[in-house]
Amino acid sequence: MRIVVTGGAGFMGSNLVEYLVNQGHEVVVFDKFTYAANINNLKEVLDKISIRKVDIADKEALMKAFDEVKPERVFHLAAETHVDRSYKYPEVFVRTNVQGTINMLEAARKFDFELIVTSTDEVYGDRWGKPPCDEECKLDPTNPYSASKATADMFINAYFKSYGINVKVVRPSNNYGPRQYPEKLIPRTIFRILNNLPPQIHGTGEQLRDWLYVKDFCEGIVTVAEKGVKGEIYNMPAGNERSVLEVVKTILRIMGKPEDWIEFLPDRPYQDRRYAMKGDKIRSLGWKPKTPFEEGMRKTVKWYLEKGREWWDKQNIEQEIKSAPTHR
Ligand SMILES: NC(=O)c1ccc[n+]([C@@H]2O[C@H](COP(=O)([O-])OP(=O)(O)OC[C@H]3O[C@@H](n4cnc5c(N)ncnc54)[C@H](O)[C@@H]3O)[C@@H](O)[C@H]2O)c1
């Protein structure tokens, strides 16, 4: 199949590209190459794929690219993804995550491809003290990033209802694994330890996240593409709920450091304490995550120890490990 992956030079996108190439598909990456992209992420498959530098928020450029490539299936992952940045630059998040997704929907109408969109568990908001969400739950985003993703989901619903386009949505929980940009919790923690700096946590680190190994995400989104129903949304929980503190302690343990070597910083004014979803719907398609948390974390730490330092510029790593810590 000829498949486009938007955001294919980012963390989850590049893992998905590799997964699809290994399945024998012809893959074209559409990516703007923001700070979060990295050509190294695609180096193992470079001779088997094509890459187009496209900004999904630029409708004309996007339409031209689709007209030339004419894919049968599109996995839409391109997005601005860092919650902390979304407080600083909300307009950038609206441009890419909302306008960019509307452009993808317009392209799906015009070129009649199958569109699978990656949303997030964050659209349901904070689930602390509340039951996990099924796909019918009220959307209750609490930060500009999740608000932009929830808005995009509303447009998807509207385009499906109005035009009957062939679209499916997945809502994965927190992904982790190789190639994640060092601004995020797990790589940032690993790089701090590698640089002899204690890991940092805002507040007590009691915030709960559900950690999904990125290879399991790839299997999940492909399952939804192949077996899911048009117009439907599929939550993709991992069943690996761990607090931020537990994640940091796990990394310290794997890297052979004392588990209490942590710098606690004053808490922020607001943090979601828990995201939680039910996954019965995607399980009914035959998918379930395969990677136990400890195993996924060991693989991830090993990858960063072997490849991390040569993957990104030294300045980028240094800048990120000194910036504010995050819980995602
Ligand atoms: N990482 C997670 O834990 C997680 C969890 C749930 C959902 N998601 C969603 O999954 C998707 C992928 O996340 P990720 O962590 O791999 O992101 P990432 O930040 O690692 O990569 C995003 C990619 O999108 C590209 N991009 C950004 N703006 C663009 C634009 N205007 N046009 C074209 N390309 C653009 C970037 O260059 C980058 O390659 C996103 O939609 C995100 O919202 C992520």
TrEMBL record:
<dbReference type="Pfam" id="PF16363">
    <property type="entry name" value="GDP_Man_Dehyd"/>
</dbReference>
<dbReference type="GO" id="GO:0008460">
    <property type="term" value="F:dTDP-glucose 4,6-dehydratase activity"/>
</dbReference>
<dbReference type="InterPro" id="IPR016040">
    <property type="entry name" value="NAD(P)-bd_dom"/>
</dbReference>
<keyword id="KW-0456">Lyase</keyword>
<keyword id="KW-0520">NAD</keyword>
<protein>
    <submittedName>
        <fullName>dTDP-glucose 4,6-dehydratase</fullName>
    </submittedName>
</protein>
<dbReference type="InterPro" id="IPR005888">
    <property type="entry name" value="dTDP_Gluc_deHydtase"/>
</dbReference>
<dbReference type="InterPro" id="IPR036291">
    <property type="entry name" value="NAD(P)-bd_dom_sf"/>
</dbReference>
<feature type="domain" description="NAD(P)-binding">
    <location>
        <begin position="5"/>
        <end position="300"/>
    </location>
</feature>
<dbReference type="GO" id="GO:0009225">
    <property type="term" value="P:nucleotide-sugar metabolic process"/>
</dbReference>
